Amino acid sequence: MREFADLHTHTDHSDGALKPSELVARAKQAGISILAITDHDSISGVQEGLSCGKAIGVEVLPGIEMSVSFEQRELHLLAYCFDPDNSGLKKCLSLFHDQRIQRAERIVKKLNGMNIPLTMEHVFKQVTAGVVCRPHIADAMVSNKLASSYIEVFVKYIGDGCPAYEKKPEFRLETAVNIVAEAGGLTFLAHPGTMFTQKDIVNIIKTGIDGIETVHPSHTGPVQEFYRGITNEYYLLECGGSDYHGGSRSDERNFGLYGVSTQAVELMRQRLLRAK
Asked: For the whole model, what pTM was predicted?
């Protein structure tokens, strides 16, 4: 097996299509030696992934992609190598779980106000495990013939800025960084792309993050090199991955192509050892 790590993937415990065990098996087929399961605001799929990885020879890292706010902007934070049983982290994720249900309820109420008879019961039928995400609402609308396609739901109704859109409750980046650190983990700014200025990035670094996701399907070669330069300048770590969801996301071609070397994971471990 080649020395390759995909540190950004999703399962049906958030908005992915595959069960954790199915994702790990797919990683084995794709020649991925280290896989991080990074579901949105949930770690409920991690244990299944760890067990399957141990059985078939794929190393699975505990991970998560957290939705956080910084200077009144939403961004995503990837976290790895934490203790899943840490009480502070579990309390935080329980809050996320409840807030996502409340957000979904507000979206459904807005859709009802647009004469779309969607119910939360319809939505929950799409949720296998973990947290409720907007894709579950889209799938529920398509399944109940309230829309013709997943894309239509996002473009017309629930995408950012659309009539039924609801912003996530704010959860400060600094708070998330501290919670993950107390749980023994590392935090990385996820897929920053070109949405931040260098000044923004410096301010984000000052919150105490450990690294930046340099490799992502949305990052061109120059963007990757830009963020590698930032990580070198500020002694940060790198991560990267395919952001694989499967199913209707049509991202099969990215799986096994986007990621980092296993040396990047070794550097993460060394950083954690020095911190002890």
From this structure: 0.89
